[in-house]
Design goal:
The protein is an alpha/beta fold. The chain has a 6-stranded parallel β-sheet with strand order 3-2-1-4-5-6, sandwiched between helices. Helix 6 links the parallel strand 2 and strand 3. It is globular. The two termini are 13 Å apart.
Length: 218
């Protein structure tokens, strides 16, 4: 079946979560990279833990909680002003350089974002970036985080396309394989050359950047 729609993860796939490093370094000199890495790790851990505990909270709250934890773990002074500065940075993350051009080449199919990000995060981010999609779907509608199947179902319901006709694109291997388990055709952007996670599935396509996707779909 030919692909009728493309669905993209947002954080780490279209938008570089580590574009906050410079601002982190301004607030805590010399600690930007360490803080950004730990922040992303705890952010994801909290989504998985909250889903397993059935204690959903919006990704905006998860992100703020993870930042507070990371500052405590790294023994960095933390206050509301610094937290708000970094929160604002998250609303204007930089797209990866290859993203705008790749999306232009992919035009002609329905295209959507499917993200852990809550609407108060993803809507201003997409608007600020100027990237155009038919829909920006948030797990907030399912009150669960990826990779539970109910999240991927949101794309089918919104786009009106069969799962077999949806291509899903993510730089997070666990997310890509969650989508593959659900039944999407999956393209994993493997920017670091990491091995595929051992979860019983393989991506349909391995990409180095999003710029590789137009050729992979031909």
């Amino acid at each position: 079946m030919s692909l009728q729609a493309l669905v993209f993860d947002a954080y780490g796939t279209l938008y570089d979560v580590h574009s906050v490093i410079q601002r982190c370094d301004q607030l805590w000199p010399g600690k930007g990279a360490a803080l950004s890495q730990l922040w992303r790790t705890k952010q994801l851990e909290y989504t998985w833990q909250r889903t397993l505990m059935r204690r959903y909270a919006p990704f905006s709250q998860v992100t703020k909680d993870a930042l507070e934890y990371c500052c405590a773990a790294l023994k960095l002074p933390f206050d509301a002003a610094k937290a708000d500065t970094l929160w604002q940075e998250y609303l204007r993350l930089a797209p990866y350089p290859d993203v705008p051009g790749a999306l232009q080449k992919l035009a002609g199919r329905k295209m959507a974002i499917l993200t852990n990000g809550s609407p108060d995060m993803i809507d201003p981010l997409v608007k600020h970036s100027g990237l155009k999609f038919d829909a920006a779907l948030s797990v907030d509608a399912a009150k669960q985080f990826k990779p539970v199947p109910e999240v991927y179902q949101l794309a089918i319901e919104r786009l009106g396309v069969a799962k077999e006709a949806i291509g899903f694109v993510s730089s997070n291997c666990w997310d890509a394989l969650g989508a593959k388990s659900f039944g999407f055709r999956v393209y994993w952007i493997n920017r670091t050359g990491a091995p595929v996670d051992k979860l019983g599935f393989q991506p349909d396509g391995l990409l180095s950047t999003l710029g590789d996707l137009p050729a992979a779909l031909k």
